[in-house]
Specification:
The protein is of the alpha+beta class. It contains four helices and five strands, in the order βααββααββ. Belongs to the anti-sigma-factor family.
Length: 142
């Protein structure tokens, strides 16, 4: 895959920044002339990943969420990282309806949503060091 462009963004783990991250990723992806549906998919997946970093990664602490985007001729790769508490069992966390925060009425569908809207999702996490979610979306050429 040939790299066309890339960017890095850092923002505080505040829930108000979830929409900011989503819009930035969509704006960056627009360089590849995606469809409205493809942009909606990207925005939804980024929303879930950023929300997970804020709610689960940092819990009630403030930290930095990092977003890296790379454009290729075939599509976009997006990495969302935090340096929060990490995920104890990634495979369990990927299960639909699993939530580590039932008291917050979380649906437990974050990773399932990401996997539904993107063509590839990889999760790497280490306890007390953080989590990185890497997503890839193929974009159809019209």
């Amino acid at each position: 895959m040939q790299l066309i462009n890339e960017m890095k963004l850092e923002f505080m783990s505040k829930s108000s920044n979830e929409a900011f991250g989503r819009v930035v990723a969509a704006a960056f992806a627009s360089q590849l002339d995606p469809t409205i549906e493809e942009l909606a998919d990207i925005k939804t997946a980024v929303s879930e990943a950023v929300t997970n970093a804020i709610i689960h990664g940092y819990e009630n602490d403030t930290g930095i969420v990092e977003m890296y985007c790379k454009l290729y001729e075939e599509g976009i790769e997006i990495k969302i990282s935090d340096k929060g508490k990490g995920i104890e069992d990634v495979e369990l966390a990927r299960q639909p309806l699993y939530t580590s925060k039932p008291d917050l009425e979380r649906s437990g569908m974050g990773f399932t949503v990401m996997e539904s809207f993107m063509d590839g999702v990889e999760i790497s996490s280490e306890l007390n060091k953080g989590t990185t979610v890497t997503m890839f979306k193929k974009l159809k050429k019209t």
